[in-house]
Amino acid sequence: MKEFKTFIGIDISKKTFDVALMQNSNCTSHVHQCFEQSMKGYTAFIDWLKGYGIIIDDSVLICMEHTGIYIHGLIEFLVRHNANIWVEMALRIKKTLGLQRGTNDKLASICIATYAYRYQEQARLWKPMNTSIEQLRHLIAQRDRIILSLQQLTVPLNELASCGDASNAKSLQKLQQKAINGLKSSLQNIEAAIDIHIQKDEEIQNAINKMSSVKGVGKQTAVSIYVYTQGFTAFENAKQLACYCGVVPFNKSSGTSVRFKPSVSPFANHKLKRLLHLCALAALQWDAEIKAYYSRKVAEGKNKMSVINAIRNKLVHRIFAVVRDDRMYVSNYECAVNK
């Protein structure tokens, strides 16, 4: 494990980023400064550190929250300086800080620096994502935005028509038809671009083919899982991935009398959870083994949604197994029939 002497917490917003600096020799003292979110600001940040005799090297740990696209510019700049970067989930930092009343950007940067100091042994240093995966991630994100826009335009009109106001629904439909046609055309173009991108990368294509061999798992789910797992490098085993997807139930109890039914955690990737739910319903229809499992558990008195969640969990384990073992999925039911 690396030994860090300097800890820098950065709170990033759209136009600025706040920096808190603390030294291992005096962890109760902080220095704060705000910089412009631009190349000029990044350079000023490095010059500011030099004013305190700090040069970015292996003894410096820079920690920041994951704030989507706002962190990309600063990360790319810091990578060129070979910095140790720790991009942490905002909720994880918040949960460790205890009770707080009020906050601002300055206080947030100080909290992040303190978190980096206290939990430096658990630091997971940032690594650049594979370029192909990064491009695929942007494509599927834009596809999701277009699908959402289409739903926002079409669903209200369908509901209006179903409520008996077909004339107004038809009039509004006519006014926005060009926009809908344009969105549908863009959606087709993006889906074609996704297919071309997958075909260009043999490793990605191979993994998606393996995942799609699991009955019930479609291409969209396979692509999304591959992207969110960073090519299956972000998780060590299927259980970790299942937790990330929010399909693992956890027990809750206190003392000898307080007992809750096992339930899944709300802290999950809700997109993958939603896709896996659709996959579970498809597997119920097309996978004889899954169908038999569902019927058996329901007959035993299990809650139907609990059984469907168990199926989602099974699918995650199957997906992880076929990628790990680099093979197509073959069900036990098919093996029995072939014998």
Features:
alpha/beta; 339 residues; 5-stranded mixed β-sheet; 15% strand; two-stranded antiparallel sheet; 3 domains; Nucleotidyltransferase, domain 5; 13 helices; globular
What's this model, at a glance?
With 339 residues, the protein is of the alpha/beta class. Helices cover 58% and strands 15% of the residues.
Number of helices: 13
Give the count of structural domains.
Answer: 3
Q: Briefly note the structural class of the backbone.
A: alpha/beta
Main β-sheet, in a few words? 5 strands, mixed
Q: If you average the pLDDT, what whole number results?
A: 90
Shape descriptor reads globular
Strand order of the largest sheet: 3-2-1-4-5
* Percent range of helical residues: 55-70%
C-alpha end-to-end distance: 52 Å
Topology as a string of helices (H) and strands (E): EEEHEHEHHHHHHHEEHHHH
> Any low-confidence stretches, pLDDT <50, length ≥5?
none
* Strand segment tally: 7
Percent in strands: 5-15%
Please state the CA-atom Rg, rounded to the nearest Å: 25 Å
Can you tell me about this structure?
- This protein has three domains: 117 residues, Ribonuclease H-like superfamily/Ribonuclease H (Nucleotidyltransferase, domain 5); 70 residues; 120 residues, no CATH class.
- Helix content is 58%, strand content 15%.
- Helix 5 packs antiparallel against helix 6 and helix 10 packs across helix 12.
- The longest helix is centred in the middle third of the chain and has 35 residues.
- The protein is globular.
- The chain starts with 5 loop residues before the first strand and ends with a helix.
